[in-house]
Structures are given as C-alpha cells and as structure tokens.
Amino acid sequence: MKSNVVIVGGGHAGAHLARSLSGTLDPSRYNLILVNERPFAIHLLAGARMTVTTEGNIDSLALIPYDKLFINGNGRLVVDRVTAIEETAPGQGRVLVLQSGERLPYAVVVLACGFSWSGPLDFPYSHEDMRAHLANWRKRYARAQHVVLIGGGAVGIETAGELRDMYPDKKITIVQADTMLLNATYPEKYRREVERRVRARNIDCVFSELTDYVPEYAGIGLTTRSGMALPTADLIVPTFGPRPNTAWIASLGADVLDERGLVRIEPTFEVVGHPGVFAIGDITDCNEQKQAQKYPAHVAVAVPNIMSYLEGRPLTKTYKGSMEIILIPIGKNRGVAYYDLLWGVIVGDWFVRWLKGKDLFVKKTRRARGLAS
C-alpha cells in the first residue's frame, strides 16, 4: 500500500509545498493529500482591497481554485478540518483526526494551517458565504461616514488606503496601541515615513490608545481605554494582528507550542521532538515577520528534508532566515517599501505601485498555482 504525505492548510505556504511535492514524490509509492477547510485558497494580500471594492474583478481573481495545483494530477484535496493529531506507539500508525470523523493515517504530515483574522478578513468557508461576506463589508464601508480602524499594522494601513481610493471625502482614522505605525521590527525612520504618507492621504492616526471592545456592527462613537472619544465614529473595524490556528496541534503534547501559540521547529522545519511532523509558514516560531514572500524559502528547505525522512536519511538542509522586506500600498498608486539592506533602503510610490499596488501579486500567485492567469 502507498503511504500518505499530508499537508494541513492550503494557504501560501501549504499550496506552494503541495505543488512542489507533487512534482517530487513518486506517485507509485506515495499519496499526496492537501487538507484545507475551504475548497478554494484566499490570496490574503488582496484581502483589504476585495472587502472595499469590486474593481478589477479582484474577488474572483483572489479566490483561487486548487484544480490545477498538483503537477500531473499527483495529489488530491480533502475539504475538511483537522481536530487532532495522534502519534501512537511505534509500528501502530500515526493519524490525523478530521472533523468529519475520518481518521487519516500519514507517513509524514506538514502543518501549514496559518493564522485567523478578525473583522473583514475573518473569511467564511464557502463561495456563497464568501460572496455575502464581501458584499456586506462593502455596504458597511459605503454607508459609514467615519471609519475607525483598530490596528496600525499593514492590514490597517492598506485598508485605509483602499478606502481613501474609493471614498475621497470619507473620514478615516487609524487607532494604534504603539507610538508609531507597524512594529519595532522596522526602523523608526521607515515607520515615520509610513505615517507621513498615510497622513498625506488625509487619514488620521491616533497613537498609544487601546480599546476594550470592538463592536461587531456599526454604532455611533468610540471611547478608548484612556477616555479619549471619537464621537463621530460610526463603523469600528478590527485590523489588529491575527491568531495562530494551532490549538489542535497541542494534541501532540504540551511541548509543541510556545507561549505565543507558535509551533517549535528545528532549522530543518521538523517539529521539535516529533520525527515525521513538519511545520512551515506563519505558525512556525521562526524569528521573522510572517510574510508570504518568505515561504518559498521554507519550502526549499522542507522538501528535501521530507524526502530524506521518507528515505530514512538524515535531515541536512537548514533554514538560515530571510531578509526583512515590506511593501505597503496606501491605495493603488501610493505606498512605501523597506528593504533591510546596508543602512536600510526606503522606496516610495512608483516602486510599490509597479511591484505590488497594481494587482497585489494576484496574477503571479495564480500562475504559481498552475493557472493561466
């Protein structure tokens, strides 16, 4: 009988790995299985734009089918949710427990289940519900007079930029708990430049303020924890950081997750203390920012190590980390990028518009999944 190689999660990291393994694994010896909660992938880099506008048919392009993902058809998709992972005694087999009740045995499993977001990026699981979700947020943005975005990271900034493109006269405010936009991974000079460009688009920024509650539906007014009032706010949108989808992975043992809920891995991407269990992408405890552009490098290390494990050889390929790069569009034609090279390189509107702002890497990602465009 053939052995199963299972990938849990079909986002940027998991889909890239699935495509690579489909061209590497011997289909006469292994079944490649991708388990994902949705029958389609979501190109999250386009998430802010497609919740604001239909322009450019962005939602249809950013919801990517898996039907061309596997090279020569060497793999299959299982639409389900993993609820537990079990490693029984040696020789007794190892299984994933699915929400449907199916128990899926594996020779190797790769955890790539990513993060969960709040608010507009808390996407549903069917095409029908997804269409309704996007239509609902577009209507809410259209009706609002003063949109307040809670969180001044990349999602909050990009959402503000998309809103400003769509609604030139709408009042928009970003509320950030820190003293500057983004986080301390990036130098102050870049963070200040981002703020300058955000304010230049008539987007207000409020710093060092926390909110105790983010209303689910539009109301009137918002008061921060310190007592500062935004009396005209009529749509409060959570755009703060996401949570790792790793609670079920703790079924492997208390040692698997760190205090942030991230998976402890070796430089080979094997989970610490669990041979044959690998993890890549957002959920790993790699000391780096969580970004899709880094995950081809994860895959380039994970694939040879997975093959070595299956063939009984030592795992020798190791991950050395990636350079920190961030490109933040503030609308389709504005933005600012940072490259951690030399003294730190900052590049402005023309570069971000050319590289990312125009289509948010949607076409590039679709081609990487085997689609024509």
UniProtKB/TrEMBL annotation:
GO terms for cellular component: cytoplasm. The keyword Nuclease does not apply. Pfam families: Pyr_redox_2 (PF07992). The keyword Membrane does not apply. It comes from the Eukaryota. Keywords: FAD, Flavoprotein, Oxidoreductase. GO terms for molecular function: electron-transferring-flavoprotein dehydrogenase activity; flavin adenine dinucleotide binding. Residues 4-303 form the FAD/NAD(P)-binding domain. Belongs to the FAD-dependent oxidoreductase family. This is FAD/NAD(P)-binding domain-containing protein. The lineage of its organism: Eukaryota, Fungi, Dikarya, Basidiomycota, Agaricomycotina.
